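Researcher: Please translate sequence to structure tokens.
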Amino acid sequence: MKIAIFRTVRGPIATLGSRGDVQPFVAHRSGKIGVGLQKAGHEVSICTSYSFKGSIVNYGLRYAYMNDEFVKFMATDAGLLAIAIASNPIAWMKKAMELSAKLALSQRQMLSEQWAEMQEAEAIVYHPKAIGGYHIAEKLGVPGYLCLPFPCYVPTAAFANPIFPDWKLGGWYNKLTYKIVPWMSFTYGDLVNSWRSESLQLPPTRYPVGNLVKTNGKPVPVMHCYSPLVVPRPDDWGEGAIATGYWFLEPPADWQPPEELIEFLVGGEAPVYVGFGSMAGRDTQKSTKLVLEALAKCGQRGIIAKGWGGLEAYDCQKTSFR
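Model: Translation complete:
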């Protein structure tokens, strides 16, 4: 699929989550999102949690407000538990049902904030966690593009959804794992339909939130921001689903690495970078231990990014890495 835009377009980008869910949308290399679109002459804003405003405006993009309640929740014990069990869909859905009432008010508020910021949009790029993007595009009758950091929505017989076990049961099982995922959002389906009716004056949707089919029956274009060299594009994907390559963000022009990092990099062979962002789970000591043991077994030097996952490298001076 090729998307060619020949005029200036006002296009908000809606995303929600941790830094890993936000930074790629600011990027301007490879996938040409955010800064790249603005350099091409389009009007770009990023609607996301307020805590990311600084990193967005520092790259010259307009920030569009969304509250911080989701980000705060993800840092709580309940939020970390939800992340830790994300690979178990049944357990995750049970936990989502428990939390839906607590998150309903902030979810509704975020939907209203997205609508307030996007009413003049001519095209919308949205992360599935920013659940208003699909519905606002429908209301305005403008193009909407679902963007994902990994292949978890578009069905394929080639491999199972990454959050499901990789059981070798064949194509039928692989496709089934993708059909289940959209229904994991059913816990706030009533909330979304209420908002659609009251704020957008749209009828209830009969598809799961974040679905791949527009109300007119046409497929929603899906962009995956990873390299097809890492995960080859399945032959049974429709032409509307693509892997664009990674959306990298250049560091600020005045950024300088710490002296300790420079000394480490030049002091031996190239190290292996290890980071899980917000996805290390609750037992960060166990995750760190596994990483360190893997590095030791391979005889590799390593750099560990703590991220939201809180990985902590204890005293490693007796090993071949730091």
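Researcher: Any highlights?
Model: The chain has two domains: 10-243, 259-305.
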